[in-house]
Amino acid sequence: STEEFQQRASEAFLQYNDESFLLVIAQSRLMALQSMLALEEPSKEDQELFVATAIQAVLEAEEAIKLDDSNPAGHATLADIFIVLASAGFTDAADRATAKLEDATWRDPQNPLYVMAEASLAIRLNDSVKAREKIQKALELKRNYSEALFMLSQIDVKDGNLDNAVTTAKQIITLEPNNPTRYYQLGVLQAAKKDLPASIQAYEAAISLDKNFANARYMLALSYLDSNRLDDAL
After folding, report:
1. Do residues 72 and 64 touch, judged by C-beta distance below 8 A?
2. Which of 63, 159, 163, 234 has a CA that sits 20 to 30 A from residue 45's CA?
3. If we measure between CA atoms, which residue out of 54, 55, 67, 73 comes closest to residue 16?
4. pLDDT tens figures, 1-28
């Protein structure tokens, strides 16, 4: 259980004063916060538990940073906690998350994960300009960063730039040619553009890689239907 895990990690920390034990405890509380944030109608008790858990997680992450300020994991963990708090509507949490991600990047400048986290936060705050800027920075650090490319395609879809989104989706496929999900995503984009032959080709490619891909089969059926291929659709 989470409680037993945290107890064991706390006992380990008492025996050996290492920040890694504090970080795993803080990260387990972060997971709990994410679960509580997903509750549709949290009770008063849920809200109080959320605040108490957040306070404890922040204290543990800050203590870990004090023990080893050079470790980027401490700053990144604290940033992740603030990102959850920003999603919950806490004032200044987004600014504090950005500051800690910048601290992590300064200590580990070649790691694109922290820049991507900034991009994700910018998307949550509906700042697509900043999100694009951070994604581009992540791609400069790692050209074949498929997650960054996918996030970029999602921004393009949101902004109505379907042509750009399709181009990016095809670029992702060259990086992950055996990933059926990427062909499915391309099919959805092509269908949105009303390019039925291209959407059918993409869905069929996804199914050839995963014959049990139910969503791809369903979307392929709709594309067949729109193409007057009724028997194929059935």
Report:
1. no
2. 63
3. 67
4. 888 888 898 899 999 988 999 999 999 9
